[in-house]
Design a protein that fits this description.
single chain; 459 residues; alpha/beta; Aspartate Aminotransferase, domain 1; Aspartate Aminotransferase, domain 2; 2 domains; 3-stranded antiparallel β-sheet; globular
């Protein structure tokens, strides 16, 4: 049962096949280069793409656009304190801005930063500051139906410390939910273990809290200690062990833009706060707006409170589960259990004849657009070169945006792609042009089907 009704709608159009083929070639077989008007169901990301509530829109009307000392900042700070338990915040224009602010203050050349699994911008910011991001998921985390497959393997963190030296690990990161590992949740027990290993290493414990509410919902449903607790209470508990948070308000802030760094009010973190504050002023703007308009601060303040409402979060996670069920019914190899924000498809299993070096995930992404103007994103060897990550395609559902018919269309599109696969009509891809920073190549690289002579031309 939906927890809301529509009051404003936007028309969308399904381009014909000839137009889709032309769009795909023009985009260099990279769906980031597609114009949104040519996309029918857009599952590229859940970041900033959702639908805001009437309460959020109303709050925007009272936004205080003062450069310094904005009242809107005060309301965001109150919301962060009430919902997440942190008093000191530095707003940023979005999550990657917050990453730049915090990780630039924490890491330096020669450092190592373990995480359950780094996402693309996290990896890039850590690498850009001279450190090495190290993924530490549990071995075989995605094998079987694990309740908390997103957990950090703390023993691997200890092994890393023994190998490189404790002094070279300034921070331990934990991403909840674990986006790059099929959106799988992290248990509170594992958060406590991560806190313990950070203390052993005298490292700052950072939680990437972009999807903290979705993670809290899974904890309540799957971790016996929290059965019967409210999502709001679980959310505060799981975050209470962190020294610092990195937050994209475009996810569980339910806003279209914005983010922040939050730091525990602890004298031991004063130096980190001071350096992060200076970086925030340099890169984002003054500390009471951080690259956001006052109206956007207001929208995020309301969104954080709405994100832990029981009716909202149950509907949110339930819709993702329904899409996973629709695909599984059609023999699409989806990761089970499904994540909180997206369904992840094993592209290597779905396209077994496309070798890894020809990017089966990206091939599947392109065919989903070709067959139904559905836009997903590859999170495998194309997005994460020089790693052994599985060949996943992520289908991220924007919050409070699509309905049952849209999910059916996605499932029907997979059926059409499967028909092309069975007919031997899907080829792999090769890179024609890519940027210097490999960690971000999937945003702008151009490709072409293997064997095609003429290079595509992106917009």
């Amino acid at each position: 049962m939906k927890a809301y009704k529509s009051k404003v709608v936007s028309p969308i159009r399904l381009p014909d096949r000839e137009e889709r083929e032309a769009n795909l070639k023009q985009a260099g077989y990279n769906v980031f280069n597609l114009d949104s008007e040519g996309v029918f169901v857009d599952l590229l990301t859940d970041s900033g793409t959702g639908t805001m509530s009437e309460s959020q829109w109303a709050a925007m009307m009272v936004g205080d656009e003062a450069y310094a000392g904005s009242e809107s900042f005060d309301r965001l700070r109150e919301a962060v304190s009430d919902v997440m338990g942190f008093e000191r915040i530095l707003p940023a224009h979005q999550g990657r801005g917050a990453e730049n602010v915090l990780y630039g203050a924490l890491v330096e050349d020669g450092d190592y930063v373990p995480n359950n699994t780094h996402f693309d911008t996290t990896r890039a910011h850590i690498a850009n500051n001279g450190a090495k991001p190290v993924d530490c998921p549990h071995e075989g985390a995605l094998d079987g139906d694990r309740a908390f497959a997103g957990d950090l393997d703390v023993e691997r963190v200890r092994e890393l410390a023994d190998e490189v030296g404790e002094e070279r690990i300034p921070a331990v990161l934990l991403t909840i939910t674990n986006n790059s590992l099929a959106g799988q949740p992290v248990s509170v027990e594992n958060v406590r273990e991560a806190r313990e290993v950070a203390d052993e290493l005298d490292a700052t414990f950072v939680i990437d809290a972009c999807r903290f509410a979705e993670n809290a919902y899974f904890v309540r449903e799957r971790e016996d200690e929290f059965a019967g607790e409210s999502v709001a209470d679980v959310a505060r508990e799981q975050l209470s062990y962190a020294d610092a948070l990195v937050m994209s308000g475009k996810k569980d802030g339910l806003a279209n833009v914005g983010g922040f760094v939050a730091l525990r009010d602890d004298p031991d973190l004063d130096d980190v706060h001071a350096e992060a504050r200076e970086r925030a002023i340099l890169y984002e703007g003054f500390t009471t707006y951080g690259g956001m308009a006052g109206r956007d601060l207001e929208a995020m303040a309301v969104g954080l409170r709405e994100a832990v409402e029981e009716s909202y979060i149950a509907d949110r996670v339930g819709q993702v589960q329904r899409l996973g069920d629709l695909l599984a019914e059609r023999d699409v190899p989806v990761q089970r259990p499904t994540g909180g924000h997206a369904v992840y498809v094993n592209a290597a299993e779905f396209l077994p004849d496309v070798p890894r070096e020809q990017f089966p995930g990206q091939a599947l992404v392109c065919d989903l657009y070709r067959e139904g103007a559905v836009r997903g994103v590859e999170l495998g060897s194309f997005a994460f070169p020089d790693t052994d990550r599985p060949e996943l395609v992520r289908l991220s559902l924007p919050r409070r945006t699509y309905g049952a018919d849209h999910l059916e269309h996605v499932a029907e599109t997979f059926e059409k792609v499967a028909e092309r696969r069975d007919a031997g009509d899907i080829s792999g891809l090769e890179i024609v042009e890519e940027p210097e920073m490999a960690e971000l190549r999937h945003f702008s690289a151009e490709l072409r089907p293997v064997g095609e002579k003429e290079a595509p031309t992106a917009n």
